[in-house]
Write a structure and sequence with these properties.
The chain folds into two domains: 196 residues, Alpha-Beta Complex (DHBP synthase); 92 residues, Rossmann fold. Helix 1 packs across helix 5. With 324 residues, it is α/β, with parallel strands linked by helices. The chain is globular, with a radius of gyration of 19 Å. The longest helix has 17 residues. A hairpin with a 6-residue loop joins strand 1 and strand 2. The relative contact order is 0.15. Bound molecules: adenosine monophosphate and magnesium ion.
């Protein structure tokens, strides 16, 4: 666990334009000073991420939002007050403090207040905004522990703050709040149902397989193993067929799987709830890679609550790979 001296060291490194990986409640972020274009450019180099892909700016509290965006519409204010700190990112018009490097050249900026004591301590010690994508190589599985970050990025990151494993486990929900009608750009840790309850109106949700947010590719969150998605009742047959064809197969099942016979085929523990599923998702994918699987057969959870975010990530993990 990070100590106070670690937080101070991390804040000093951020001030010097260096990269610090830090825990949030969603996944680990790879952070740099959001106002320093050279520092932000380092993030893109470390990840191998194309510079047109915007980053999320992390700030210490909702009361600071006005410092980072051009204006705060009433809907954005309501959502910030209701869900921050928490896994909700608001896309708003860019304030001048945010470097264009961090927004991928866009005139909008994505902002959130993370709900993690280490992240909040870092933001308080640093005092500014921290631009941070997930701390993994571009396109691969997001890290949910400090050791995942070290394994992914090695020396490309100057310092890793350890805050244990992430409680939510999937990225934040991104909401475009620039206009009168907010829209979900990416499902995540705050559910659509909770957003709708707060807003008092229904929200459009992107289809799980469509790319809506700039900088999102069909293949993302991808383990080394190829991922195929099949109907629940076909998981076992598909896995057995692939095994006969010589594949090393990992079977990955959603919590609704009570069937003991099917469960016996699972390569990793079947999660007991959707929250547990989200928390474990990226670790499971990494574990299947570690077991040497070359094919993961998975079935989508029901697309409600956290299931929407999980289905979105699995769809993208199964998306066509750049080399394919
Ligand atoms: P990650 O790299 O996984 O941390 O995700 C950051 C996400 O925020 C990416 O999907 C970006 O495309 C999205 N994002 C950041 N800034 C903006 C913006 N101004 N408008 C829309 N999406 C954004
Ligand atoms: Mg990412």
């Amino acid at each position: 666990m990070a100590r106070i001296s670690d937080i101070e060291k991390a804040a000093t490194l951020l001030r010097a334009g260096r990269l610090v990986a830090f825990p949030t409640e969603t996944v680990y972020g790879l952070g740099a000073d959001a106002e320093d274009p050279d520092a932000v450019a380092r993030i893109f180099r470390a990840k191998g991420r194309p510079p047109s892909h915007p980053l999320i700016v992390h700030i210490g509290g909702a009361e600071n939002l006005g410092d980072w965006v051009e204006d705060v519409p009433a809907t954005a204010r309501l959502l910030a007050e209701r869900f921050w700190p928490g896994p909700l990112t608001l896309v708003l018009r860019r304030g001048r403090r945010v470097s264009l490097a961090a927004t991928g050249g866009l005139e909008t900026v994505a902002v959130r207040v993370p709900d993690h004591p280490v992240a909040l301590a870092l933001l308080a010690a640093f005092g500014g905004g921290v631009a941070a994508p997930s701390a993994n190589r571009f396109g691969s599985v997001s890290p949910t522990t400090a050791s995942h970050v070290r394994a992914e990025l090695g020396d490309a990151v100057d310092f890793v703050l350890d805050g244990g494993s992430c409680g939510v486990g999937v990225e934040s929900t991104i909401v475009d709040a620039t206009g009168d009608v907010p829209t979900i750009l990416r499902p995540g840790g705050v559910t659509r149902e909770d957003l709708e309850a707060a807003l008092g109106r229904p929200l459009a949700v992107p289809s799980a397989s469509r790319v809506r947010v700039p900088g999102q590719h069909p293949s993302h969150y991808a383990p080394r193993a190829r991922v195929v998605l099949v109907e629940p009742e076909k998981v076992v047959a598909e896995a057995e067929l692939a095994q006969e064809l010589g594949h090393r197969v990992g079977v990955f099942l959603p919590p609704s799987f009570a069937d003991a016979e099917v469960k016996a085929h699972a390569a990793v523990e079947v999660p007991g709830s959707m929250a547990e599923y989200a928390r474990g998702l990226y670790g499971f994918l990494r574990e299947l890679d570690r077991q040497g699987c070359d094919l993961i057969v998975a079935s989508l959870p029901a697309q409600e609550g956290l299931g929407l975010a999980i289905a979105n990530r699995l769809h993208r993990a199964a998306g066509p790979r750049p080399s394919a």
